[in-house]
Amino acid sequence: MMLKEKDFVYFKKQCAYWIDKFGLTDWDISYEFGGLEDHNGGGCMANYVACHAIIKLHPSFDDDYLISKEQYLKTNALHEVLELLLIPMQILAESREWNYAEYEHQRHRIIQRLSKVLEEK
Predict the structure, then answer these.
(1) Is residue 73 part of a domain?
(2) Block means of pLDDT (10 residues each) for the chain, length 121 residues?
(3) For residue 112, is it within any domain?
(4) Overall domain count for the chain
(5) Model-level pTM?
(6) Structural domain range at position 74
(7) Does residue 118 form part of some domain?
């Protein structure tokens, strides 16, 4: 089944919800409907230094999923935002120059963001 523009708007709304919840508002984020080679649902590409990310949604939805289209969009939005949340750790892991102080700083930022969300009632 092909997703429509209204589905993409809903996906972006869900992403914005989680971006706000996790306090990732320091990122400049753009969205793309498509632009993915495989049918994995979505993607998150980020430039850590520039603090810019592109969150993508694949335009097709596999009807074989045992969830509704709405739940599919919600789940994908959360997944891509969590990818963004963990980008600093990925960049550090891929770096040839391991900086333990930066690792500790980023790890605690993630913990603080997760704590804030999990402590909300």
Answers:
(1) yes
(2) 93 97 96 78 89 93 77 93 93 82 91 91 61
(3) no
(4) 1
(5) 0.87
(6) 5-87
(7) no
